[in-house]
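Checked the freezer inventory, then went back to the computational side. Two predictions to log before the end of the day. The first one is the construct we discussed on Monday; recording sequence and tokens without edits.
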Amino acid sequence: MEPAESGRERGRMGRARLTDIAREAGVSSATVDRVLNDRPGVRARTRDAVRTAAARLGYIDGAESPAQPIVPVCRLEMVLPAGTNSFMRELARHIEQLSALHPEARVTIHSIEGFDPDSLAAKLAEFGAPDQGVAVVAIDHPTVREAMRALALRGSAVITLVSDIHHVPRAGYVGIDNRSAGRLAGYLVGRLLGPGHHRVALFAGSLSYRGHEEREMGFRHVLAEDFPTIGILDSTEVRDDDSRAHAAAMAMFEAHPDVDAIYNIGAGNRGIARALEETGRARRVIFVGHDLTEHTKGFLLNRTMDVVIDQNPRVQAREALAQLVRSVKGEPWSALAVRVQAIFRENIPEL
């Protein structure tokens, strides 16, 4: 429920609204209301982000926003996978927008082939300095792990983003609990299918992404524990590409015309949705996937998709930038846990 309109907001009709500030800062409208009315219960970093966003939108005077301390300039390198992945494009857009909240940092976004460990390692080899922070969406591969170790030795603060990698000297991880997200997907598929024997098809971008591997593990564990009559087909890797996903889904329907549900662990939802529509299976086959975008929103509205498990890209962008700045400064890690949300046709939030 939206907070009651404050006197401050009523006096500024025609300018920015609480919802505009909330969207800009990546928080709820209730949090904005608490900050602007000086109520307790909001962390200092979040309070500063809200007041900075409010100043940028003209809701409060710039003088009312917190003074920016004079600090050495740092460089933040954000390494994201290229391709048709709509979530990654949204993440890049939010990083670009929210970088204005960190005038002490120069932010650069690098798009590279996400499934080529050598290309990623070569990109990481370009960085390395004490005033530099690197956030990377990385596949879990020996070449990449060695490149991250070497990067840390050269003095850069390194964080993993969206998908984690263990046993590397990273400052921390910004993203969701992917195993929990997979368990949620398994529970939803099991409940939506109901009693009886069913078959589920799995698609993944690449299980070289630890996040995708963890989602599959969580999904399989829940079905084995709670829905043992549901059979799972071997997972198919589509490299988060819509064309590959479409071709793989069409081949799967040819080989398994009786499939009852699809769980797409990564991107490629547009290709799978097109295959469902072209074969007349839309609305008959349960379809659960990840990440709310304009495309998946449309698939929910026309009932091609049943559930989207969302990881807020704006929050991840905000936290990645904030944590990199903190890490470069040598300050302690204090990342906010990114929540997982199940989105149905009836509860689609504003993008």
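The second is the one RB wanted added to the comparison set:
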Amino acid sequence: MRITEITSIKNPKIKGVLALCEKSKLRKEQGLFVAEGIREVKHCIEGNYHIQSLFYCPQIIDNKSIREIIELLGVSAPNEIFTISNDIYSKIAYRESTEGIIAIVEEKSHKLDEIKLSENPLVIVIEAVEKPGNIGAILRTADACGADALIVCQPLTDLYNPNIIRSSLGGVFTVPIAVCSNEDAAKWLKDNNINIYTAQLQDSKLYYDTDFGSPCAIVFGSESKGLTNFWREISDSKIIIPMLGKLDSLNVSVSVSILCYEALRQKREKR
């Protein structure tokens, strides 16, 4: 393993990092993305992602942390490890509060048949949610409440958008995720005998009057349009969060948190 020093912002490796951060099309074409921060890189490794290249700034990150990460990588340590100056790091770092480490990581597949379900699963389904910050927050909730999976239907942004990685605090690496069409998700849920509950305003009953004790998937729509008729028509139960003010909706990530923790509460009581 060789460590090489990069001294110029014009170095092709540095330009490559910047391009991957900025261009979704390039991430998809190359099957690569950028992870930044000690916690995020460690979650990548623990999630069996392959680190292609590692960049770190000795002026920011201490040698002990770098050694821990390289030891965690073990035999999978990348051949390309680079040191960069604080000046270069500040130009390529995506986050304002930096920790001195950036990795170029190979994407993983996110297929439904790769999801392993528990005995009484809780699955979160989101349809055409477009704001990366909301997806990141949903992933944090999915991790915190122990959801079996997040299924992303009709995606409008790629999972490795830097905003998703940042706002999920690495949850994108810790939560089992599948990306697919509405039709494929619905078939998979039915095949696995998982009840489909849709969060919607129309023809719904209050969420705390809903039985989440059995295997269930809670489906949430986009920020602007809500759920499409596809999910409304096939749902086993339609649920609503009471709104006592003048506004008629919550942020989708907040709705996910409320309903998932109610499901968790009921499932734990049923044990």
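For RB: Residues 112-270 form a domain with the Alpha/beta knot fold (CATH 3.40.1280.10). The longest strand covers residues 51-56. Let me know if you want it refolded.
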